[in-house]
Write a structure and sequence with these properties.
2 strands; mainly alpha; Peroxidase, domain 1; Peroxidase, domain 2; metal ion binding; two-stranded antiparallel sheet; binds protoporphyrin IX containing FE; binds 2-acetamido-2-deoxy-beta-D-glucopyranose
């Protein structure tokens, strides 16, 4: 082989590496289980389908599980660990308690995976695949999930309370919550579109519908509308129905579509954290993005996928780091 050819091959090799590095640290790969567990993704898909048929809200719950996993020590399935002598479970954190759902579904799928290929598919990857399938099943986009995450050896209750954004956050706080994870304002706006499916308890937004604070009375939030009356009826001020749930997207709660952004424009985002995207956007960039997503669903889908890939990449454990749990609720003992 002559030198020219050699250096060309070398150059192509290096460029490929750089590309891989830019995209996902070169660690995660699509088709990661192609040889070690060829039916892994099919197994997850089938069982997410079954779970969602039985309980349509489960699609939203599985998507949220992946998010709450990734924002605490990275996408390492730390969110799935129960209390142990060594650490406290993230499930007790304020944003998770009486709120996160889907643990039993993940257990069931993991058990089936363990039967097909013992200790090959990580719980963290399972969460990432299930989140994708959930979105697709509700009419949202599909994408190739990058795989090869390992599972953590611990959980962080403190981290869960610190890093998961609160529903009454200001825009500034949301932006910094995302920045800590390496996600930008564009990611915040696109990923908030997840609130096109699923439900919220009254307790997560009640403050907003009964308070007179300026943020809530900004020009995007109109009082005494039908929307406002519905919320007050479902969630009485007394607090006796604080655990009642309301769809985050009252118009098309079963579909993963771009209606969330229409809602924002009409001041009908459910959470304060939804509405501040527009009401507190001084530069007008977010407002522009919201309008763009509202008028072009495919644009929203493309951005959403891009941001999901970014989120799925947060601080992943790979190679010899972590482990592949046998049971997603406990670290391995052997
Ligand atoms: C921007 C900051 C965010 C805040 C403050 C926030 C907050 C919340 C809250 C308070 C709920 C209702 C929980 C309850 O009352 O039990 C909720 C539900 C949900 N969130 Fe978010 N969220 C945010 C971003 C995200 C992101 C990035 C995703 C996904 C990538 C997501 C996906 C969901 C889904 C799917 C539900 C419905 C879950 C279900 O029905 O079980 N959220 N969120
Ligand atoms: C959000 O709600 C919590 C609990 O109700 C409260 O302690 C906190 O001060 C609120 N934060 C903001 C920014 O309003």
């Amino acid at each position: 082989m002559n030198m020219g050819k050699m250096s060309l091959i070398l150059l192509v090799f290096i460029c490929n590496r750089i590309e891989a590095l830019n995209f996902n640290d070169g660690n995660l790969l699509p088709h990661y289980y192609k040889h070690s567990c060829p039916h892994a993704e099919k197994i997850v898909r089938r069982n997410v389908e079954i779970a969602v048929l039985k309980d349509p809200r489960m699609a939203a719950s599985l998507l949220r599980l992946h998010f709450h996993d990734c924002f605490v020590m990275g996408c390492d399935a730390s969110v799935l660990l129960d209390n142990s002598v060594a650490f406290l479970s993230e499930k007790q954190a304020v944003p998770n308690l009486n709120s996160l759902r889907g643990f039993e579904v993940i257990d069931r799928i993991k058990a089936i995976l363990e039967e097909a290929c013992p200790k090959i598919v990580s719980c963290a990857d399972l969460l990432a695949i299930a989140a994708r399938d959930a979105v697709t099943l509700r009419g949202g986009p599909s994408w190739k999930v990058y795989l090869g995450r390992k599972d953590s050896l611990k959980a962080s209750l403190i981290g869960a309370n610190q890093f998961l954004p609160a529903p009454n956050s200001s825009l500034e706080t949301l932006i910094s919550n995302f920045a800590v994870q390496g996600l930008d304002i564009g990611d915040l706006v696109a990923l908030s579109g997840s609130h096109t499916i699923g439900k919220s308890r009254c307790t997560s937004f009640k403050e907003r519908i009964y308070s007179r604070s300026i943020d809530y009375e900004g020009h995007h939030y109109k009082r005494n509308t039908v929307f406002h009356r519905i919320l007050r009826t479902i969630c009485p001020k007394s607090g006796r129905r604080d655990d009642a749930v309301v769809p985050l997207d009252l118009t098309t709660s079963a579909r993963f579509d771009n209606r969330y952004y229409h809602n924002l424009i009409q001041g009908k985002g459910l959470l304060t954290s939804d509405n501040v995207l527009m009401s507190q956007d001084v530069e007008g960039k977010i407002v522009k993005q919201v309008w763009a997503y509202a008028s072009d669903e495919q644009l929203f889908f493309r951005s959403f996928v891009e941001s999901m890939l970014k989120m799925g990449n947060i601080n992943v454990l790979t190679g010899g780091e972590g482990e592949i749990r046998h049971n997603c609720r406990v670290v391995n003992t052997w």
